[in-house]
Design a protein that fits this description.
By secondary structure, the chain is α+β, with helices and mostly antiparallel strands. It has 22 helices and 30 strands. Strand 1 and strand 2 form a beta hairpin. Helix 3 runs parallel beside helix 4, helix 11 packs parallel to helix 12 and helix 19 packs across helix 21.
Length: 749
C-alpha cells in the first residue's frame, strides 16, 4: 500500500476499524479497577483472573517507561510477564510527587518498586503455604505461582479465594532485602514492550487526540514577544465572516503566564486558525523586542570574564595559585546557540469542568509543577483539579513546564465550555522555552606529562530552574544560589589537582524569553566545552586524544565513585573508553582518507549522583571547498548498569545519539527581535533520514544499579563530531551548531 493510498483511505474513514482497535477516536482506554484484587502497595494490583496491573505515574514519551517500571516490580514479584499489563494514572495525591525528567524514572523508583514487588511475593508465598498446608519457608514463587515440590497454586487463584491479606507498613517495606542479581529472570533480558501495540494500531491517546462532549476548539493569538505585551485593541470583523467562528477571548491571567494574549474559539480548529489569521490586533509594550542572539552571547562572554559574577558550583584546591604561577595556561571560549524543542506534537490542552472538579488532558512531564500553576490561573483549590495522563508526542523537556495549559483553562472558564486549544507550529515555537545560548570560559594548566594541575570552568546561561521551580536552586559553595541544572557536567570525572566550576545567570536571557530544559539539560552544553577543551590540550601536548583522556581517569578521591549509583567511579568510564577505542578501530585512524577524521569524547550522564558512563567516537568527512560535513559513523560504548528493558535501552540510546548529532550540525536557531528566528520545520532543520550515520552501540553487561538512559546519549556526540572535524581538517570549532561556513572561516584562519 502506498502512502498516498493510505491517506486516501484514512480520509474516507476506511481505516477506522484497522487503526482504531475498536475504540472511538479520542476515547481514553480504561484499565481494570485499581481497587480490584490484592494490592499490597499502591503500585500494582493482582486480579482474581491472575492479571497483574501496574500503576505507572511517570510520563510515556517514547521511552517505554511503563514496560521498564513494570519489569522492575515483576522481577521481585516473580510474575509471569504474560500476566502483566499497566495503566497510566491521574494526579491523585496518593501517587506522590509526579515528574518525568532527568533520566530519573527507573533509577529513582528502582528500590521502591523492587520492594513493592518483593512484598507481594512474600505475601503470596505466605498465603500459598497456608492454602497448601505446608511451611512457607519450603515454598518459592515462579511465573505467577507459589510452588512447593510438585504442588503449586497460581497468584490469581489465591486472590480469587481471598487468601491473601498481608499488609506492609512503610518501615516493613524499607526493611525488605531484595534477591541477589544472580537470581534475576527479567531484568537485563529482552521482552515485549507493552505500550508498542497501542502506538502501532492507533489506539494510543495523545494529548492532541482527546475529545469530550460539547467541546470547542481554540488557537491562541500570540503577542510580539513573551513578556510585557498588552493588547491595545483588536477587531474581529473579518473573523466573523469565517464559518464556525464563535468568539475571541482576551485573557486575564492571575499567573502572568499569558501576557497580552487573545484566544480565538471556533467549532473546528481549522476555523479557529483561519480566524486568528484574520484578526487585527495592536499591542503595546513588551520586553526584549530588540534583543538578538549576539546580544545574549556578548553578555555571556562579559559575565564569564567577570570573576565576581555568579556563584561556585564546586571548588577543590587553589586553582588561582596554579593559574597565576603557570608559564602556560590552556584557555578557550566555547559557545552554544539557542535550541528549540520542536516536539512533533505542538502545545495543546483540553480543559473542562466536571461538577466541582476541573479536568485537564494534556501531555505532561511534571504534573506536580503544573497543577498549582493551573489552579492559580483558575482561582480554585488544587484539590478540585485533576490531570489525566496521556502519551506525549515528544517531551524533550518542553513538557516539564506545561504553561500552555493555562490559556486553555482560562478560555474554558471564560466561555463556560470545554475547550481544546491547539497551537500551530509557529505559535508553539514563539511560546517555546528554548535551551538558552551559553558561553563557557575554560582555563587549565598541565605538567609536562599532561596531568591536570588546575581546571577552571565558568558558564553563563539562562537558568531554567529559577523562574519555574526556584525551590530546586542550590546553595553555592561560598554563598549565593546555583541552578545545578545549568552547570552539572562541568564537574567532570577527570583527575585534577585543583578545580573550580562557576555558574552565572545571564539575566538578559530571562528578559527575552523563558529558558527551559532540553534533553540532556546542562551536560548538553557543559560537556561540549569540557570535551573540546580536553581534546585541544591533548593535541597541543602531542598526545593521542584517547590515551590522554585515559591518563586522567585515575578513579581516586572525588572520582572514586560511591555506592549504589556510581560504584567504580571513573574506572567504569575508563572501561567504556577502552571498549570504544577497540570497537571503532581508533588505532588506525591515521590511515583514513584525506578529509576524513575521527573524534572521541567521554561523558557521564546528566548528574554525578547517577552517572551513565559513555564513550563516543564519531567519524566525519569534510569537503574543504564547501565546508559541508558528512557524518559517516558513530560508535558508542555505554555502561548504564542493570537494564530494565534492554531493547528499550537501545532505542533510547539510538534516539539520544541522533538527537545529539542533529543539534551538533543540523539544527539550532538564533534570537532575532526577542523571538526565535526559525519558527517552523522549513527553516529549522533537524537531521533528515538520509543524514543518519551508521550506528554501532554496545552496552556493558553488569548488575550495577540501573541509572539513566533518556538523555546521556545526547551529551558526547557534539564534542566527538567537533574533534573529528579537527582531525579531518585542522579546523577547531568552539561553537555549536557547527556550520559549513564556520569550517571555512576556521580553515582560512
Amino acid at each position: 500500500m502506498t502512502r498516498r493510498w493510505f491517506l486516501a483511505l484514512a480520509g474516507a474513514g476506511v481505516t477506522t476499524g484497522l487503526m482504531g482497535g475498536g475504540l472511538a477516536f479520542g476515547q481514553v482506554p480504561v484499565g481494570r479497577s485499581m481497587g480490584e484484587g490484592f494490592q499490597p502497595t499502591v503500585w500494582y494490583a493482582i486480579g482474581p483472573d491472575g492479571k497483574i496491573t501496574m500503576h505507572i505515574h511517570m510520563a510515556e514519551m517514547g521511552q517505554h517507561v511503563g514496560t521498564a517500571l513494570s519489569r522492575v516490580i515483576a522481577e521481585e514479584l516473580e510474575a509471569d510477564w504474560d500476566d502483566v499489563e499497566f495503566v497510566h494514572v491521574d494526579t491523585d495525591p496518593k501517587w506522590g510527587y509526579m515528574v518525568t525528567g532527568g533520566s530519573w524514572s527507573v533509577n529513582h523508583n528502582f528500590f521502591a518498586f523492587s520492594r513493592a514487588g518483593a512484598a507481594g511475593r512474600m505475601a503470596l508465598i505466605d498465603a500459598g503455604a497456608r492454602e497448601m498446608g505446608v511451611p512457607a519457608a519450603e515454598c518459592m514463587a515462579r511465573a505467577s505461582k507459589v510452588i512447593h515440590g510438585e504442588q503449586s497454586i497460581s497468584y490469581g487463584e489465591l486472590v480469587a479465594r481471598g487468601a491473601v491479606n498481608r499488609e506492609f507498613t512503610d518501615d516493613e517495606l524499607k526493611a525488605i532485602k531484595l534477591k541477589p542479581a544472580s537470581e534475576r529472570r527479567l531484568l537485563n533480558r529482552d521482552t515485549v514492550a507493552r505500550d508498542v501495540p497501542a502506538k502501532v494500531d492507533g489506539s494510543a491517546i495523545y494529548g492532541i487526540d482527546r475529545t469530550v462532549k460539547g467541546m470547542v476548539y481554540a488557537r491562541p493569538v500570540m503577542p510580539p514577544v513573551r513578556f510585557g505585551s498588552k493588547v491595545k485593541n483588536w477587531d474581529d470583523s473579518a473573523a466573523k465572516k469565517i464559518p464556525g467562528y464563535i468568539q475571541t477571548v482576551e485573557l486575564k491571567d492571575p499567573t502572568d503566564t499569558c501576557q497580552g494574549w487573545l484566544v480565538v474559539v471556533a467549532k473546528s480548529w481549522t476555523a479557529a486558525s483561519k480566524a486568528v489569521d484574520a484578526l487585527k490586533v495592536t499591542w503595546e509594550g513588551g520586553s526584549g523586542r530588540n534583543m538578538s542572539e549576539a546580544d545574549l552571547l556578548a553578555e555571556g562572554e562579559r559575565l564569564v570574564n567577570d570573576k565576581a559574577a555568579g556563584a561556585l558550583f564546586m571548588l577543590e584546591g587553589e586553582p588561582d595559585a596554579v593559574l597565576d604561577a603557570a608559564e602556560k595556561v590552556h584557555e578557550g571560549i566555547y559557545q552554544t546557540h539557542t535550541v528549540l524543542h520542536m516536539q512533533l506534537e505542538p502545545g495543546n490542552a483540553l480543559v473542562w469542568q466536571d461538577g466541582e472538579t476541573w479536568r485537564v488532558h494534556a501531555g505532561n512531564q511534571w504534573q506536580s509543577l503544573t497543577l498549582p500553576l493551573v489552579a492559580k490561573a483558575l482561582e480554585i483549590d488544587q484539590a478540585n483539579l485533576v490531570f489525566e495522563t496521556s502519551y506525549l508526542g515528544g517531551g524533550f523537556g518542553r513538557r516539564l513546564f506545561c504553561d500552555f495549559v493555562v490559556p486553555a483553562a482560562l478560555t474554558a472558564k471564560a466561555i463556560g465550555r470545554p475547550v481544546k486549544m491547539v497551537m500551530a507550529r509557529p505559535d508553539d515555537t514563539r511560546f517555546d522555552c528554548p535551551r538558552s545560548p551559553t558561553v563557557h570560559k575554560v582555563r587549565s594548566v598541565t605538567d609536562k606529562n599532561g596531568a591536570l594541575q588546575a581546571y577552571d570552568h565558568a558558564c553563563a546561561s539562562g537558568w531554567a530552574t529559577a523562574p519555574i521551580a526556584p525551590a530546586f536552586l542550590a546553595d553555592g559553595v561560598k554563598g549565593g544560589k546555583i541552578d545545578p541544572f545549568s552547570i552539572s557536567g562541568a564537574d567532570h570525572w577527570y583527575t585534577a589537582e585543583s578545580m573550580r566550576v562557576r555558574a552565572v545567570k545571564n539575566e538578559k536571557v530571562h528578559e527575552t524569553f523563558l529558558p527551559g530544559n532540553l534533553r540532556s539539560v546542562a551536560p548538553g552544553f557543559t560537556l561540549w566545552a569540557v570535551e573540546t577543551h580536553i581534546d585541544e590540550i591533548a593535541n597541543k601536548l602531542g598526545q593521542d586524544p584517547a590515551a590522554f583522556r585515559r591518563s586522567l581517569l585515575n578513579a581516586t578521591g572525588r572520582n572514586a565513585g560511591e555506592a549504589p549509583h556510581a560504584v567504580g567511579g571513573a574506572a567504569r568510564l575508563r572501561e567504556v573508553l577502552d571498549r570504544v577505542v577497540k570497537k571503532s578501530g581508533w588505532a588506525e585512524r591515521k590511515n583514513l582518507p584525506e578529509g576524513t577524521g575521527m573524534g572521541i569524547s567521554l561523558t557521564a550522564g546528566q548528574e554525578r549522583g547517577m552517572p551513565t558512563w559513555i564513550a563516543t567516537v564519531a567519524q566525519v568527512r569534510v569537503d574543504r571547498s564547501t565546508g559541508e560535513i558528512t557524518l559517516q559513523h558513530i560508535w558508542a560504548s555505554i555502561d548504564a548498569g542493570t537494564l530494565a528493558h534492554p531493547d528499550g535501552a537501545l532505542a533510547q540510546a539510538e534516539g539520544a545519539i541522533l538527537w545529539g548529532a542533529s543539534m551538533a550540525i543540523h539544527e539550532g536557531t538564533e534570537i532575532e527581535n526577542g523571538l526565535p528566528r526559525d519558527r517552523n520545520l522549513d527553516t529549522y532543520t533537524p537531521m533528515r533520514m538520509h543524514q543518519v550515520p551508521e550506528l554501532d552501540i554496545e552496552f556493558v553487561a553488569n548488575d550495577h544499579m540501573p541509572v539513566g538512559l533518556g538523555e546521556p546519549g545526547v551529551i558526547g556526540v557534539a564534542p566527538a563530531i567537533g574533534n573529528a572535524i579537527f582531525h579531518a581538517t585542522g579546523a577547531r570549532l568552539r561553537t555549536i551548531p557547527m556550520r559549513p561556513q564556520d569550517i571555512l572561516k576556521a580553515l582560512e584562519a
